[in-house]
Design a protein that fits this description.
With about 250 residues, the chain is an alpha/beta fold. The protein has a single domain, classed as Luciferase-like domain (TIM Barrel, Alpha-Beta Barrel), CATH 3.20.20. Helices cover about 45% and strands about 15% of the residues.
Amino acid sequence: MKIGVQIQPQATSVTEMRDAWKAADALGVDSLWTWDHFYPLYGDENATHFECYSLLAAMAVDTCHATIGALVTCYSYRNPHLLADMARTIDHLSRGRFVLGLGSGWFERDYLEYDYEFGTAPGRLKILEAGLPVVKQRLGQLNPGPVNGKIPLMIGGSGEKVTLRLVAQHADMLNTFGPVDNFRRKNDVLNAWCEKVGRDPRAIERTVAIEAKDLVDADGYAAAGADHLIVMLGAPFDFDPVARFIAERR
């Protein structure tokens, strides 16, 4: 079972985040993430907040072990060609450790305040579906290309009719949420989609975003099909539960 942490970029400072992801990398986590929003998602709506891809560039050069990425990128915030180029550049900064996590977007305040069209959830999913081949095509055209020839693609979400189908068709990784029973159902639905589209379900890594307190359910998640737990952490960043998990795993 892999273990990762999401360093949430709200109610904190750049210095605190840099210290946090360096500490997590030194602990031996398998992955490091932030989120792609423009405003806090909980607590004080006017708390400090920082932009995702600028942070990922800093994370790439500050760390040396863990894979890095956004959990997950809101596809509709950026032109797909530009997004592919940004991902490729951060991949080089990280020496091949970048994961391109994508989702259709959901946080209305981001859209309204930054003058993006919010639309509807089905509409945003259609935009994501149309954009996935564009991102892949641009990644194949860039010079130089990704360090390892390919950047792993994660799709985040849990919609059973569209999102999980897109995972089966396009992604190397799925990220969804607990609790265990919810994760098990989404995992089973994804396996069914893989059968329908002719994809080997073992080719898709299953990640699940959890709270630190939910690490006690690690065995349950593993039994439900999870390959990778990602602990979501807000400031102040307490890595003690993650450190204990890593020590026990070793």
